[in-house]
Automatic annotation (TrEMBL):
This is Uncharacterized protein. It comes from Mesoplasma syrphidae. The lineage of its organism: Bacteria, Bacillati, Mycoplasmatota, Mollicutes, Entomoplasmatales.
């Protein structure tokens, strides 16, 4: 099987769910020299002072962020617990399938959603003959004129094509916003590697279509995103 490398920063940066920023965790970890210099120059009191994908898309789609703080924090907590189970299942790949375990999670709803995502991922593996996967990555856009940082839930290849995936658990219908997130995640991958993303998918068991290919963004949306990136970089 071909070996692929991704400059994952999850051992260097950690996402703070209260501040919605990335904290500096361990700069001693082996990191690309150029990226390490970006982190050093962009850090302020242990916090990475560059734009996040969430900040960019919330400015382009401001209506998405109009919920009270308690609702947002509850959703963040639920999402983290669901993704913990999904990421563990991905680590526990056995042959051609991801192996789901409940771990110490007690909430039946969270278990149900996570298990459903893993089920759909296993079908995805089979359909696209996936050979290698990456999950739970943190990357910085490798462009000093357009700096931003973000998480990537799922990246996979069959040796010919590359696929990007995002895990959601909301009936909000914000698929255009989710597509914009994937568009920015695509930039993260392609600026740090020679890999070109062919298809992007939203995995959301609460939607009518549980696996949805990301929407094409309009020229206006692409313009707004690029302007927001420039303003915040």
């Amino acid at each position: 099987m071909a070996k692929y490398q991704i400059s994952d920063l999850s051992q260097v940066l950690s996402y703070n769910e209260k501040t919605f920023k990335y904290d500096l965790a361990n700069l001693d970890w082996e990191v690309d020299y150029h990226i390490k210099q970006i982190i050093k120059k962009s850090s302020n009191q242990g916090v990475l002072a560059i734009a996040t994908i969430s900040e960019i898309v919330n400015e382009v789609y401001p209506f998405v962020d109009k919920q009270n703080t308690e609702v947002i924090q509850n959703l963040i907590n639920r999402t983290r617990r669901i993704k913990t189970l999904v990421f563990q299942a991905i680590k526990n790949r056995r042959g051609a399938e991801f192996y789901f375990e409940e771990l110490d999670e007690k909430d039946k709803f969270i278990i149900k959603i996570a298990k459903s995502i893993v089920h759909d991922l296993n079908k995805f593996l089979y359909k696209y003959e996936i050979k290698q996967v990456f999950s739970n990555l943190i990357l910085i856009n490798n462009d000093v004129n357009n700096l931003f940082v973000g998480n990537i839930d799922f990246l996979a290849t069959n040796g010919k094509e590359w696929f990007l995936g995002s895990f959601k658990n909301s009936r909000s219908g914000f698929n255009q916003k989710y597509s914009a997130e994937l568009y920015l995640q695509k930039q993260l991958i392609e600026s740090n590697t020679n890999y070109k993303i062919n298809k992007m998918f939203i995995f959301n068991p609460l939607e009518q279509r549980v696996v949805l290919e990301a929407n094409m963004l309009s020229n206006y949306e692409l313009f707004k995103i690029s302007q927001t990136e420039i303003k915040k970089s």
